[in-house]
Design goal:
26% helix, binds glutamine
Length: 204
């Protein structure tokens, strides 16, 4: 059977409306995956997974609405294509947002509290425990005006913790982190997401 090159190449989109999308694209490329900056809903048709980066969630929400991204993102999720939200991206994907309350896509059953670390600790680096493979490992985490995951629904699996609290979680094909994995040298988290996308492409 003759196949076009496109069908065989895994491509992961990075929502490029606002925030630090460029570093996510670089991390994906380090994992050997083609990264595509997504600026219009129609561009979602060209990718197998999507990263929603950190930034400012209220601004991102306005841009997503202005560009009519909501139905396209819901369709993307219903098609079983994985989505990874970091920091503001997590805030957009959460079921419930507090401090203040804000609309969100509700694609993962968690409640998040925005800017939850207070002024003194607004931005910091820390080490946490992650279980991204068979054995737990230590992971460097960069938090920037980060939200806290206050509640995790029954279908949600916690993948990493810092100070005894969940900082990375997954519900089926939706992955979220309160920290910024693109700001460290490790590509562990991006590799985990790439594997998820690879498996979803294979229909697993
Ligand atoms: N504090 C931001 C918000 O609430 C998120 C910060 C980030 O993405 N680094 O939208």
């Amino acid at each position: 059977m003759i196949r076009s090159g496109r069908a065989d190449t895994m491509r992961i989109g990075v929502l490029a409306l606002q925030g630090d999308f460029a570093l996510h694209a670089r991390a994906l490329e380090k994992c050997g995956v083609e990264a595509v900056e997504v600026r219009k809903p129609v561009e979602l048709d060209e990718v197998d997974g999507l990263i929603m980066p950190g930034g400012e969630s209220t601004t991102l929400l306005k841009l997503i609405d202005a560009w009519d991204f909501v139905p396209a993102l819901e369709k993307f999720n219903s098609a079983g294509k994985p989505i990874f939200g970091t920091c503001a991206g997590l805030i957009l994907l959460a079921r419930e947002v507090e401090s203040p309350k804000q609309l969100s896509l509700g694609l993962i059953d968690v409640t998040v509290v925005r800017n939850a670390y207070g002024r003194q600790r607004e931005s910091f680096e820390a080490s946490g425990t992650a279980k991204l493979g068979p054995d737990p490992s230590q992971l460097e985490m960069v938090f920037i005006r980060a939200p806290r995951i206050k509640r995790v629904g029954p279908g949600v699996q916690v993948l990493a913790e810092h100070g005894g609290e969940p900082v990375m979680a997954r519900q089926d094909r939706v992955l979220v982190a309160t920290f910024h994995p693109e700001l460290t040298d490790s590509t562990k988290v991006h590799r985990y997401f790439c594997d998820l996308v690879e498996r979803s492409r294979a229909g697993a």
